[in-house]
DNA sequence: ATGGTTGCTTAGCAA
């Protein structure tokens, strides 16, 4: 199984690039974040007339207008679809979707950014991560074939940040955010890209501003986390930096896809 | 310290 996660930063703006990427890489599963469209617009406006099906993909979405929105695209039909975390919290932000694809449970998460440490959005980020952990503990087991992936808006280690000192106190690197991620991993998940690149220096997000990509000033915020039965069968994990290249005329997302190959 | 850019929506928010 080839599985990828990609924050597309508007699926409408990334329509052409997304279809071209699917055609070139043919992942079995692609988890997208920041769709910025409703479920209705995804089907009727972004990919009308069965455009995705013609490309060989099923799609299940949990979208909203303007902000957030997540999708699981797969070459076989996803089943057991869950939108949101089913925990009774009235969360207006569409940031989580899960489904079974080819015998693997896929959880696609768009973790809140948090804006600034101490803000209301920061509190929401930490609470959201705690809810994600509760949801996993309630609905899955570390012995399951499970992937939790997405944009975590957390760089796990200093070696996942080009300039760690500059970001140390940011919402992306703050010890409380890293502790929340560590708690998820301790439940029974392995960061498969970190396993394949222990020295770090592999990034998945570069700010649009200040020529960050050209200056190699990035962070690894997009993660593929696998339970032990799957992590042991991961043969490759990489970032497709090519998708972040080019000028604004090429309309790259500010994130690049992270891809893993699992021998299942 | 501030602002730099992109996307959605059309002045301002979120990232």
Secondary-structure map with pairings?
Blueprint: E1 2-7, H1 15-25, E2 29-33, H2 39-46, H3 51-54, E3 58-62, E4 70-74, E5 79-83, E6 96-101, E7 104-110, H4 120-139, E8 146-151, H5 164-167, H6 175-188, E9 190-191, H7 192-196, E10 205-206, E11 218-219, E12 222-226, H8 228-231, E13 234-239, E14 258-262
Parallel strand pairs: 1-2, 7-8
Antiparallel strand pairs: 1-14, 2-4, 3-4, 5-6, 6-7, 8-12, 9-12, 10-11, 13-14
Helix pairs in contact: 4-6
The chain binds one DNA strand of 15 nucleotides through loops.
Summed up:
With 264 residues, the protein is of the alpha+beta class.
So how many helices?
8
- End-to-end gap: 6 Å
The percent range for strand residues is: 25-35%
Please compute the radius of gyration using only Cα atoms.
17 Å
The count of DSSP E runs of length 2 or more, i.e. the number of strands, is: 14
Largest sheet composition: 6 strands, mixed
Order of helices and strands: EHEHHEEEEEHEHHEHEEEHEE
Helix content: 25-40%
Estimated structural class: alpha+beta
- Average per-residue pLDDT, rounded, comes to 98
List the uncertain runs.
none
């Amino acid at each position: 199984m080839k599985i990828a996660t990609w924050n597309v930063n508007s699926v409408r703006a990334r329509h052409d690039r997304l279809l071209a990427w699917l055609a070139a890489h043919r992942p079995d599963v692609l988890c997208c974040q920041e769709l910025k469209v409703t479920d209705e617009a995804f089907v009727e406006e972004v990919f009308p007339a069965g455009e995705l099906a013609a490309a060989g993909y099923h799609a299940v979405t949990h979208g909203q207008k303007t902000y957030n929105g997540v999708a699981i695209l797969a070459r076989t039909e996803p089943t057991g679809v869950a939108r949101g975390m089913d925990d009774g919290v009235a969360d207006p932000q569409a940031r989580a979707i899960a489904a079974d694809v080819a015998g693997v449970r896929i959880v696609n998460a768009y973790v809140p950014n948090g804006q600034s440490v101490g803000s209301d959005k920061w509190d929401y980020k930490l609470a959201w991560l705690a809810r994600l952990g509760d949801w996993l503990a309630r609905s899955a087991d570390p012995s399951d074939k499970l992937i939790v992936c997405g944009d975590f808006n957390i760089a796990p280690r200093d070696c996942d940040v080009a300039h760690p000192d500059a970001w140390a106190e940011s919402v992306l690197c703050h010890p409380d955010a890293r502790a929340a991620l560590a708690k998820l991993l301790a439940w029974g998940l392995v960061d498969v890209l970190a396993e394949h690149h222990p020295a770090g220096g592999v990034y998945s997000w570069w700010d649009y501003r200040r020529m960050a990509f050209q200056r190699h000033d990035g962070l690894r915020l997009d993660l593929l986390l696998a339970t032990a039965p799957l992590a042991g069968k991961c043969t490759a994990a990489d970032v497709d930096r090519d998708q972040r290249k080019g000028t604004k005329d090429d309309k790259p997302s500010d994130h690049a896809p992270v891809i893993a190959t699992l021998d299942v």
